[in-house]
Design brief:
It is built from 14 helices and 22 strands. The protein has a 7-stranded mixed sheet with strand order 15-16-17-14-13-19-20, with helices on both faces. Strand 11, helix 8 and strand 12 form a beta-alpha-beta unit. The protein is an alpha/beta fold and about 500 residues long. The protein has 2 domains: about 270 residues, 3-Layer(aba) Sandwich (Aldehyde Dehydrogenase, Chain A, domain 1), CATH 3.40.605.10; about 180 residues, Aldehyde Dehydrogenase, Chain A, domain 2 (3-Layer(aba) Sandwich), CATH 3.40.309.10. The model has no long low-confidence stretch (mean pLDDT about 95).
């Protein structure tokens, strides 16, 4: 176990607070590290250093910034097994997914480092002679990044990589459930050559550390991933300062299986989408919408396979699902399961697992309900291994059910009908749609995000990753050697 401090101006320094908290392994309760309960004063110190570091970092050529990010990716690649085990120990996802979390971070750093040789603007013809028009991207300044616990390396790197390549400096607050993963990322970026003050790391509660980042006028933009209530509060608070905010929030993602689908393929996708990461993904498959013609056949397959699902030590490669993140998460999920038992038909699972190794951690059976559209479990985000199955009679009804929800992150349809597939791309109200694959996230070179209450319309990763971290400046160069007045011309 290691006792960490906060990271400011390239050094690990003491917090203004003597209070500390532990990060624990949700499998067995082992204490992995301790961190300070940071204060507003700590955040203000971090902002001081980020402001001081900004001019030099901004002037560092973007390709040179990219070289640092690429070195960080290389370090992570060399340490992938170790880092993947750390993700699994701190967050609880099975080891294959822990290493996948790290690989996604590596992939994004490799991708975004190349953006240092693009950072593309536009050129366009002028309406006047002897005049040149273009746009350039400029960094915003000090930005605040606040991340969740379910992807404790990938999501922080999405934000850190995009913000840094654009020339910003950062004040970063990790989720209090998984600060160790982010602390190690900070160490890796320091090893890769990131200058002091460019990235600052303060742990602590959202009401103190998080809100000081949001409220402080010297932090010029906010990037937040988390729950809808916190996202709404951050959005409204930052608006008082006219501060740009990008929020990535919840999901209640549907998989539609039509009567012409490959049911075996759909089954594999649903199992991974619903129970991977113990359902603790914003892209998790929460709703399975089945055409009535294949409903019984698909349910038989689903229940039979779920019965073989193994739950236990996530470091064991034979285990299908690990624990949920902590006791609070367990209690929240079990509360929804109790609601489901009252309003729907429980067909599998529904129990907290106890006895033996289960008594040391936070374990829930993978759970399946048959329900009608409109129940709480079919419309509210549960963020756990709970799948609601809904029967429909047609494609049109499936789309209506899929869209009648406050969220719009990821969606999927299984069908062999190319016409239906392309109709679904147009009809599904989500930021991501998969054809014949589950509701997982995007590849790192493609934009990630959603519509409705999933977020405010921005996108992370891909070609849009730098949008939230740059300002667009429009430039006009008039080389006519005379005054030209756009839109004011002599009548002929």
């Amino acid at each position: 176990m290691k006792d960490y401090d906060i990271y400011i101006d390239g050094k690990w320094v003491k917090s203004a607070s003597d209070r500390r908290f532990e990060t624990r392994n949700p499998y067995n309760g082992e204490v992995l590290a301790t961190f300070p309960q940071g204060t507003r004063e700590d955040v203000q110190r971090a902002i001081d250093c980020a402001e001081k570091a900004f001019p030099a970092w901004r002037k560092t050529p973007a390709p040179k910034r990219g070289e640092i990010l690429l070195r960080a990716a290389q370090i992570m690649r060399a340490r992938k097994q170790e880092l993947g085990e750390m993700v699994t120990k701190e967050m609880g996802k099975v080891i294959a997914e822990g290493k996948g979390d790290v690989q996604e971070a590596i992939d994004f750093l490799e991708y975004i480092s190349g953006e240092g040789r693009r950072l593309l603007g536009e050129t366009t013809p002028s309406e006047l002679p002897n005049k040149f028009c273009m746009t350039v991207r400029q960094p915003i300044g000090v930005v605040g990044c606040i991340t969740p616990w379910n992807f404790p390396t990938a999501i922080p790197i999405w934000k850190i990589g995009a913000a840094l390549i654009a020339g910003n400096t950062i004040v970063f607050k990790p989720a209090s459930l998984t600060p160790l993963c982010v602390a190690v990322l900070v160490e890796i970026l320091e090893e890769a050559g990131l200058p002091p003050g460019v990235l600052n790391f303060v742990t602590g509660g959202g009401g103190t550390v998080g809100m000081e980042i949001v409220e402080n006028p010297r932090v010029k933009a906010i990037s937040f991933t988390g729950g809808v209530p916190a996202g709404r509060e951050i959005y409204m608070t930052a608006a008082q300062h006219l501060k740009p905010v990008e929020v990535e929030l919840g999901g209640k993602n549907p998989v539609i299986v039509m009567d012409d689908a490959n049911l075996d393929l759909a089954l594999e996708g649903v199992l991974f989408g619903a129970f991977g990461t113990a359902g603790q993904r914003c892209t998790a498959t929460s709703r399975l919408i089945l055409h009535e013609n294949i409903y019984n056949a698909m349910m038989d397959r689903l229940i039979a396979r779920t019965e073989t699902f193994t739950v236990g030590n996530p470091l064991d490669p034979q285990i299908s699902m690990g624990p949920v993140a902590d006791q609070n998460q367990l209690e929240s999920i079990m509360n929804y399961i109790q609601i489901g038992k009252q309003e729907a038909n429980l067909v599998y699972g529904g129990q907290q697992l106890t006895g033996g190794e289960y008594d040391r951690g936070c374990f829930i059976q993978p759970t399946i309900f048959e329900t009608s559209h409109g129940t709480r479990i079919s419309k509210e985000e549960i963020f756990g291994p709970v799948l609601s199955v809904i029967k429909v009679g047609s494609y049109e009804e499936a789309i209506e059910v899929a869209n009648d929800i406050e969220y719009g992150l990821s969606s999927a349809i299984y069908t062999r009908d190319v016409n239906l597939a392309f109709r679904a791309v147009d009809d599904l109200e989500t930021g991501i749609t998969y054809i014949n694959a589950p509701t997982i996230g995007a590849e790192v070179h493609l934009p990630f995000g959603g519509v409705k209450n999933t977020g405010n319309g921005g996108r992370e990763a891909g070609t849009t990753a730098i949008d939230e971290f740059t300002e667009i400046k429009t430039v006009f160069v008039d080389y006519s050697n005379r005054l030209q007045k756009a839109q004011i011309v002599d009548e002929l």
